[in-house]
Input
Amino acid sequence: MTNKILVIFLIFYFLFLSTSAQDNLLDQLREEDKTEWNTHTTTFKAIRLINGHTVETREKGNLEFLISHRFGRINSGAYQFFGMDQANMRLGLDYAWQDWLTLGIGRNSFSKLYDGFAKISLFQQNEGKIKQPVTLVWLSGASINTIRRPEIPMNLNRRLQYVHQLLAASKLYQNIALQLMPTYIHRNLVREPSAPNAFFAVGAGLSYRLSKSVYLNVEYYHRFLDQENGTANPIAIGVDIETGGHVFQLQLTNAQQMTETGFIPSTSGDFFNGDIHFGFNITRNFQLGNTRPIKK
Amino acid sequence: MKNCYITLFIFLLSQSLQAQGHKTVSGEIEFFSSAPVEDIQAVNNGPTGLFNEQTGSLAFLVPVRAFRFPKSLMQEHFNDKFMDSHTYPEASFEGRLSGYDRRRSGSQEAFAEGNLTIHGQTNKVRVPGNINFKGDQIIMDAVFPVKLEDYNIEIPKVLFYNIAEEVEVTVSFVFEKTDR
Output
């Protein structure tokens, strides 16, 4: 009798043991290996939000080629083909010289302007053991307009403008990212005597993930000016369509310039009065040099 | 009553045997996607595994984020658009190894049967591979195809580079005896 009970007990015990042992192996592995594998995750899809920069920088050795267009005002009528006849173009190259340092140059058809900038990653948002809620990036840039202006004596100094920005972004959920951009602008030459050479502005941006490849973006800069002198705060709304190595960005904005020293101080359109420019940015990513080793 | 003691003795002995296992000292998983536009290859040195020689129980845990790609943007797309590694940070295998002879040394064929979980989707699989008993070490390797569709991995429609609907996965593990 005791034997019988024992045998039954053992059968059940082994049955239980064999199933629990299997479960245990995976749990045991989870217990033992607590290595955190963080891969570079992005806050925004592209390196530009709409007109301005995002905190996004690429890893060392990546070169991004940007082609941007802003057409004329949509409310300019059928004769101007709703702005399509007047395009302002920018060609740009952003090169990630180091993981933390991106250098960029660009040429704009507007004012025959050349621009250059350095973008420095300070902190990367991290959800791992060391919590870091925001990504911080510093941007410093300068631009020089080379358009001929025979009506006034021009020299190098008068052609220069500067921008300094702190970009602070946070990916709140998997599908929403926010960015704040305190900005300082300095222009050596201004259009009117009453316009300030230097001023502060604060930008705010939002990106919402509509699907795996499509994002909706909004961008706004508020300028702290005593007089606006016929200029307006730049507003933009756009979508990002990501297709592998390319990102297509389509936008509607009241700004026609594409550098911080241009669209922040000199936007003139009234967005809510229909002074809207259609535009696009196309980025193409190239990994230069040797691709990185994948084996240990 | 004597029988009873013998059974108990066997029972206790088997328990101590049960506790004997092998743990990976190195693991590597590689996948290869062959497509007209671009071949895509990635390597993962993060996986860990446990193997129990007596029962044949076998388990692997693969941190998805540990896959390294030659291009950083590919790695981002892999995590973000294909594997949703934020939601599904790990892939795993849990099952049993059979068809091998413990006493034979040298490489021999074996079958791993069990549940393969990728992208939060679990499927029953039977994977043929090789096992090699080398003293205290056990070396396992296998090459098998994984169909993206079987694991609900969607290829986004607006993507310029082609990705094969079936990728080839190569695994190789070296186990060593643990005390437990």
Observations:
- The first helix of chain B runs from residue 2 to 18.
- The beta strands of chain B are 21-33, 40-44, 48-51, 57-63, 67-68, 90-98, 106-118, 121-134, 137-147, 166-178.
- Residues 21-178 of chain B form a domain with the Lipocalin fold (CATH 2.40.128.110).
